[in-house]
């Protein structure tokens, strides 16, 4: 295997050194949980009888205690297209477990909200904290101590990070993530975006828009653009938490079923009763976290992971920051262009060579840690293979030697660009992240007067009134975790895209989030300190000259003394739709660079 790139090695060493005390404490915790914690063998007769009472077919095996009992944590619901296929997985998993002499039970369910449904709606203010709710729900599910292994059924934006945060607190359990796969391709994402912009301009009707949206999102399976959900699946591959290259097989296929069977069989082989023990707390280590960051940069993945990856890492005693992201981005070339960074979707990406091609290229270029402990027997080497079904057998064939579509996927020797798709911005407005992989290079630097808003609806009203027909940097503040849960502001994308297409120099600056599908408009997001905490963004006024520079990595207000201004008053808190139930989370969340997590902030405060 090639030597690791010294830049990746340097970042990894720094993370290991920075994390040494907390990682050591974490590993001690999971070792104690394995050796002396509550487990099925230590349960009282009453505890155990309650645990297997409903498992009629598996009662004797669970009662005997000699075989693995697998806890299934599921994000199933049939309102989310991505999670609807999970409805029948538990019964299938139980059958697959019995094939190996094991048993399986649904340990619990976790909520799974859809940002696609809540974009631009009040419910979006629950979105980020749904991740921490999922982590809590995962912990409750696994707390019954009935299980020697776990399978996590989840795909989308906050769901996979939440499942991992919860599962890592049970880090002594071998755990595999089980995906459901993307829906088949429908209306091209680029065409859907075109109709959205026409609607924003008043040139398409609501019926036209609904027809385009329903032709794009048309059946069970994950949405096909490369947003946060599919970035999650990519990360599970490069971290070694899937059976190899399970991410992008479509639902309802023989291949999908056999990959699920392989995950069930494999988790029975990596338990503490055998000689190949692979607990999730050891699989997710500093090198695996770096691999996830490398994968994000190489594929132009979702900016949401600038928040989620630090939170996942902290749940395992590891500390990664945006400077690490920045240096990894400088070292890793962009190998993939998947919508919104290109024209094709994740199904096209899979056909072009997909994750096996990307992983092989990164390993051969010395950009990926190949020596991590994965759920697969031979480490990252196994993830070079494309899965296929031959007869009744699941087999993995080598990744294609050349890309099948050079407009979508390229080798490391001939990338789309020499650096990754994410950049740290720092300056007198604070620290933020910008995704550059989908932005035309001539728009990597925007200098323009500010127009300041307190929510995205105000922006759209100004757009419709023709008040933004100029070079402008739109500032949307009081959108941070403490203010209102840090909603995504993807509803702004069509309007800002229209302004940009009309020839104006346009950018967005916000202490909120932008969708994982954010595209061609430069957006400085996750800015902190947030406005509610008196951050500099609270002192920006209409007409102030701002500069967002993704080349130099700076975000500045070009006027001396502005920090002497009094901060703007926060808008009145909006309640309803359950938002008030999350007020405790808002009041205790930490900043975006640390993961914007109230749970981890509270955990750290207690040592």
From TrEMBL:
<dbReference type="InterPro" id="IPR037237">
    <property type="entry name" value="IlvD/EDD_N"/>
</dbReference>
<feature type="domain" description="Dihydroxy-acid/6-phosphogluconate dehydratase C-terminal">
    <location>
        <begin position="408"/>
        <end position="596"/>
    </location>
</feature>
<keyword id="KW-0004">4Fe-4S</keyword>
<keyword id="KW-0479">Metal-binding</keyword>
<dbReference type="GO" id="GO:0004456">
    <property type="term" value="F:phosphogluconate dehydratase activity"/>
</dbReference>
<keyword id="KW-0408">Iron</keyword>
<protein>
    <recommendedName>
        <fullName>Phosphogluconate dehydratase</fullName>
        <ecNumber>4.2.1.12</ecNumber>
    </recommendedName>
</protein>
<comment type="function">
    <text>Catalyzes the dehydration of 6-phospho-D-gluconate to 2-dehydro-3-deoxy-6-phospho-D-gluconate.</text>
</comment>
<feature type="binding site">
    <location>
        <position position="156"/>
    </location>
    <ligand>
        <name>[4Fe-4S] cluster</name>
    </ligand>
</feature>
<keyword id="KW-0411">Iron-sulfur</keyword>
<dbReference type="Pfam" id="PF00920">
    <property type="entry name" value="ILVD_EDD_N"/>
</dbReference>
<keyword id="KW-0119">Carbohydrate metabolism</keyword>
<feature type="domain" description="Dihydroxy-acid/6-phosphogluconate dehydratase N-terminal">
    <location>
        <begin position="69"/>
        <end position="381"/>
    </location>
</feature>
<keyword id="KW-0311">Gluconate utilization</keyword>
<dbReference type="InterPro" id="IPR056740">
    <property type="entry name" value="ILV_EDD_C"/>
</dbReference>
<feature type="binding site">
    <location>
        <position position="223"/>
    </location>
    <ligand>
        <name>[4Fe-4S] cluster</name>
    </ligand>
</feature>
<dbReference type="InterPro" id="IPR042096">
    <property type="entry name" value="Dihydro-acid_dehy_C"/>
</dbReference>
<dbReference type="InterPro" id="IPR020558">
    <property type="entry name" value="DiOHA_6PGluconate_deHydtase_CS"/>
</dbReference>
<dbReference type="InterPro" id="IPR000581">
    <property type="entry name" value="ILV_EDD_N"/>
</dbReference>
<keyword id="KW-0456">Lyase</keyword>
<dbReference type="Pfam" id="PF24877">
    <property type="entry name" value="ILV_EDD_C"/>
</dbReference>
<dbReference type="InterPro" id="IPR004786">
    <property type="entry name" value="6-phosphgluc_deHydtase"/>
</dbReference>
<comment type="pathway">
    <text>Carbohydrate metabolism; Entner-Doudoroff pathway.</text>
</comment>
<comment type="similarity">
    <text>Belongs to the IlvD/Edd family.</text>
</comment>
